[in-house]
Amino acid sequence: MEAIIELLPELNKAFFETVYMVAIALFVAILFGLPLGILLFVTEKDLFLENPILKSIVDVVVNLIRSIPFIILLVALLPFTKWITGTTIGPTAASVSLSVAAIPFFARIVESSIRDIEKGVIEAAIAAGATPWMIIKDVILSEAKPAMIKGVTITTVSLIGYSAMAGIVGGGGIGDLAIRFGYYRYDNTVMLTTVVVLICLVQLIQFAGDRMARVVDKKS
To answer: Where are the domains of the chain?
Structure first.
């Protein structure tokens, strides 16, 4: 118990570092992953922006990044991270790799969410003379909103797990704390404490995301 009390300042700092890097990565993932996911869907065959070449290129890029284990991606992106942030350590640097990993992850979730929309709804909008932008804005985004909110929740939870790995290369956050104070010092109390904090954070995010999805779901 005494060890945990002494660790509280470090734990508090690590917690906010984790929240900071996850928030940045989530913002970037939504900013780029949302239009990318929509693009993956609307450029398919028989859809209103059909473009097989563009679809194939985006598919390959997304699959390529998603197929790389995060720890390898983290190390591979160190030169790019240093170019962007000027450093390769700390939560800001870690957020670069987290963002790169999160964009294709969220894009696939968006694409999957849109596929759940009944084709007849989109076909009706096309028959009514709606422009592609109107279909995306008023039909696709509106109908897929609950599923996308769940997708944001899944992405956030995954990013928390990835952020713990960032501690291996000095990325900061709870993962870094667990490695420095728990693993290297063979302190099981510290390891258990960090795990409990991460579990509580994940449960809170999952609860909030599920609640928000139910609120915006027109069918519920």
So the answer is: 20-171
C-alpha to C-alpha distance for 95 and 97, rounded to whole angstroms: 6
CA dihedral of residues 71, 157, 11, 99 (deg, nearest 10): 50
Report CA dihedral (49, 52, 56, 59) to the nearest 10 degrees. 30
Convert the pLDDT of each residue in 50-107 to its tens digit: 888 998 999 999 999 999 988 888 888 989 989 998 888 888 888 999 999 999 999 9
Q: How far apart are CA 182 and CA 175, in angstroms?
A: 10
User: Residues 126, 131, 136, 142: what is their CA dihedral angle, to the nearest 10 degrees?
Assistant: -70
CA atoms within 13 A on the CB side of 17: 24
Q: 20-171 belongs to which CATH class?
A: mainly alpha
Task: For tokens 């984790």, name the residue.
Answer: 18
Residues 6+ apart with CB under 8 A from 79: none
CB 90 within 8 A of CB 172: yes
Contact 125, 131 (CB under 8 A): no
10 Å CB burial of residue 170 (0-12, 13-18, 19+) is middle
Closest CA relative to residue 37, chosen from 126, 103, 99 = 103
End-to-end CA distance of the chain: 46
